[in-house]
């Protein structure tokens, strides 16, 4: 794999760390600013909304900039946002810093996916995308726990300063390792927008929302579920999240490897298995060992869908994939928000802390149905294309004769 993928992975590591580390530092931030925990939670909500809005906005604004330069500008924005959070004199300023940092998130992964795919041979594109996303998954295993530990002992401002420094390292790596990759000639914003007229692109994004939503329906409420139902101590939740992160790393790498060989079958297996495991989590949540194994499996199966879904969007968007790729990153965050809301609804309705698992299973099953529909549509389109391209007339060297038996329709080679 090219070293440029390492630079992209470092940037992804920093972005993944800043996105999730705030969840472990909310009490410290709330205490310093004198706000309630729910108010401090706006730092999470604001970031998610910034990703949703920033993915298409920043991609459109950078439509005339080379992809390498755009990645560098996005990392600069990320560094500025985290530095602003680190030195924020008031809660409102920190919220602004979080939003500024989040604006880089979707576009970085969207453009980065296109760059990663272009760095390798066609049969290794999904693997290259998964290598970049490895930075995001490793962030959940290493960056978030360490960032939380640093914030609790040295102060949360130090955590955000360190994350900003990671952004500088990522920026330097992109500047030095990623080759210049100008945008394809003739591709303008209208070409990028035209990708959204493709039903297959929209289906892939819907699969992203539902499939990834299935994961976070359960994981969003992992703390109350594992403490109140499974019987884990509060301090064990961090290690359960590390297990989830390890599953993410493994699933992401496996998904990238096998998506290059058989993309749609990989989606069938991962989404189908994810739906089953989430449904079983309503039972395994009552046993500590089984619950821990299930959490790791959810991380693995959920992130096994990421490289194939991202590659599916790139493939279907054809020659103008950048905006579609970035918007698909926003779709992951939309899935997070949707599933967290639905999971909260079933808990509030009195169905218990394991009820979000049923919501997640239903969402993953719906994503599987869409994958099957997408494949069926593609097969029908392929048959129509083949039927419409049959050549009539006399047989010539290397041409195909219309009509007759299958053997008669085989190409005839003159010696």
Structure commentary:
With 415 residues, the protein is an all-alpha fold. Helices cover 79% and strands 0% of the residues. The protein folds into two domains: 183 residues, Growth Hormone, Chain: A (Up-down Bundle); 197 residues, Growth Hormone, Chain: A (Up-down Bundle). It has 16 helices and no strands. Keywords: Cell membrane, Membrane, Transmembrane, Transmembrane helix. InterPro entries: MFS (IPR011701), MFS_dom (IPR020846), MFS_Efflux_Transporters (IPR050189), MFS_trans_sf (IPR036259).
Provide a short characterization of the protein structure:
With 415 residues, the protein is an all-alpha fold. 79% of the residues lie in helices and 0% in strands. Pfam families: MFS_1.
Assign the CATH superfamily of the largest domain.
MFS general substrate transporter like domains
> Helix- and strand-based class?
mainly alpha
Report low-confidence residues grouped into runs of 5 or more: 390-415
In total, how many domains does the architecture comprise?
2
Proportion in β-strands: under 5%
Architecture of the largest domain, according to CATH?
Up-down Bundle
End-to-end separation in angstroms reads 43 Å
* Estimated radius of gyration: 23 Å
- The CATH topology label of the largest domain is Growth Hormone, Chain: A
Spell the H/E element sequence.
HHHHHHHHHHHHHHHH
| Morphology | globular
Mean pLDDT figure? 83
Number of helices: 16
Largest sheet, in brief, is: none
Fold blueprint:
Elements: H1 4-33, H2 37-40, H3 42-61, H4 67-87, H5 91-118, H6 125-154, H7 156-177, H8 189-194, H9 199-219, H10 222-230, H11 237-259, H12 263-284, H13 288-304, H14 306-317, H15 322-348, H16 355-388
Helix pairs in contact: 1-5, 1-6, 1-7, 3-5, 3-15, 4-5, 4-7, 5-6, 5-15, 6-7, 6-11, 6-14, 9-12, 9-13, 9-14, 9-15, 9-16, 11-13, 11-14, 12-13, 12-14, 12-16, 14-15, 15-16
